[in-house]
Amino acid sequence: MRQDEIWDDEAARRYDTPGEGMFAPDVLEPTVDRLAALAGDGPALEFAIGTGRVAVPLAARGVPVTGIELSAPMIAQLRTKVDADTIPVVAGDMATAVAPGEFSLAYLIYNTIANLLTQAEQVACFRNAARHLAPGGRFVVELWVPELRKLPPGQQAVVWHSEPGYIGLDTYDVLNQQVVSHHFRFDDGRQAELFRTPHRYVWPAELDLMAQLAGFTLESRHADWTGGEFTAESRSHVSVYRLP
After folding, report:
1. pLDDT of 12 over the 90 cut
2. Cα 74 from chain centroid (whole Å)
3. Which pLDDT band, with edges at 50, 70 and 90, does 4 fall under?
4. Mean pLDDT computed over 57-76
5. Which CB contacts under 8 angstroms, 24+ apart, belong to 205-214?
6. Which residues contact 231 (CB under 8 A, 6 or more apart)?
7. Closest by Cα among 71, 36, 41 to 55
8. pLDDT tens digit string along 92-122?
């Protein structure tokens, strides 16, 4: 499953869920608040900008935002909201594509660094972020913590969310550090709709080493966008890396 095949026209059309899920105000507003504070008076670069879930409200806050995005259908969906003068987007892979200009902030959120399926690609992504940043610039990564502690011996799957009409299930390949997320949606009938996405899971310590290889140091790590303490029980983290 290649990323450009996964994020096709249908996925782009169904991605936005205004007011719900990742678009819920209690999820989106703290994200935008924190990124705006980190950007300060400088411009921001979003890797995997998608349909502009974060970029559009961040730009509305007065932060100049540029994006990099691999999926043409996702860019087309973004263009229904803002034009290219408001939020320019470079079509390409976030590990290698180059956007014009120099930025005070680069960010890669909602677990998207895991869409890069090899360690080499993830390291290249950090180096690409460093390439775009001014001295003292920051790179923000939001990522989930692998839930391997929930895997009993001999079991390969974890149900990470369940509600009426939806089940989220992850299957792990612990030998190769791979995971596939399965999203099942269904009604009262017999049929279910499945959407799958492959990922390479990354522990925080490995992420820190990737950052170090690109010249970053860890500035802060919290459990969420509001600054909650990151603990052994945290399911995700927001890590801020900074260049000298």
Report:
1. no
2. 14
3. low
4. 96
5. 206/119, 207/113, 207/141, 207/143, 207/239, 208/239, 210/119, 210/122, 210/123, 210/126, 211/126, 211/139, 211/239, 211/241, 213/123, 213/126, 213/127, 214/123, 214/126, 214/127, 214/129, 214/130
6. 223
7. 36
8. 999 999 999 999 999 999 999 999 999 999 9
